[in-house]
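Suppose a colleague, Dr. K., hands you the sequence of a protein chain of 426 amino acids and asks what its three-dimensional shape might be. Before reaching for any lab equipment, you can write down a predicted structure in token form. Begin with the sequence itself:
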Amino acid sequence: MLKFSENNEVIQNEAYKAILVGLQINEDITYSMEELEGLAEAAGVEVLGTMVQNLERPNNATFIGKGKVEELAEMCSNMEADTVIFNDELSGMQLRNIEEVIGVRVIDRTILILDIFASRAVSSEGKLQVELAQLQYRMPRLLGFGKSLSRLGGGIGTRGPGEKKLETDRRHIQRRLDDIKAEIAELKGNRNVQRAKRQKAGLPIVALVGYTNAGKSAIMNRLLEEVERQDKVVLEKDMLFATLDTAQRNVKLDTNYEFILIDTVGFVSKLPHSLINAFKATLEEVMYADLLLHVVDASFEASEFHIEVTNKVLKEIGAGNKARVLVYNKIDLLENEVLPVTDEEYICISAKRGDNFERIIEIIKEKLFSNRILTKLLIPYDRGDISSYLCEKAKVISIDYVESGTEFEVELMEADYNRLKEYDTI
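The predicted structure, expressed as tokens, is then:
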């Protein structure tokens, strides 16, 4: 697990040994616990064992039962564990109470995910968003954490304690929160300018969304290879949250159609609300997409769960009603391809082998360009309003000034073509 300075720079890489703890109330958490183990391993933690308790509701003071906390303390002592990771978000008081009994550091799923995100953020905006989420998480927990706040990674509030110090920490954190929000707002403004340029150029957007490690980056790279843009490939790796920052690439098809392809951060169950809020600035690119390619790991037996989590997050960021196609990836890992039971449009592919990528390109063409018409228009010089409209709203291939007016080779939406077809010269 990584430790960080105030500037989120890695200052130490510790090989922690952990026990995972889950609370099962109304539903089976077997998969959730398996996923927690994957998250722990992604953070460089060695998992020694797990503990799951069945309760009707969480214990306000210690989350799990007090007897289980004592059992956990003995388990940590016997297995020489130095960390306990809970599968749910804990309050500052719960963290403090548990830690006082078991005598080792205690973290929850949220801290673990924030740790991974902090280690993977590359861009300035990504780092700011992670820091924002970290501070939003810490602020309400200052009093409950006490001295244990120091183990969250160095920086603000690490010396912990008295009330006067806590008030100082609160003011310090609040000032930093305000600064980060201002910086993110400025970056958002820059992104709005870039988005306006894309809209003016008439370039549609295709966004890859889905659960973490479903293969979104691999699909982006394969598509870039298909259109001979290998120089623009992005990082891909078989691990949770291999990529965190949003990547955008221009893709030009052989038909001269062009679109923006966006690779987004992957989702995960129980994604901290503070992270969703912090990353809305990045995820809002999905809100402006014309088509979502919802990538699903076909080799995962509970893929319906991944779909459900992704749909939930898309709805939360305001992109729940976007046009989408389910893309079942990794069919190369299946012994027998089983067709999914769904009413949604879908395609089964392998980013590794390149299976069915020609069909993906055809689907993109059908969804984005089927109602577009490539034509030539001769606009009289006294209709400068039409020429301005075409330059702003249509995809202009070429412009030529002739004696009778301005000749445009242009790609139009069907509605625009019907309105301007009297100027068609084809």
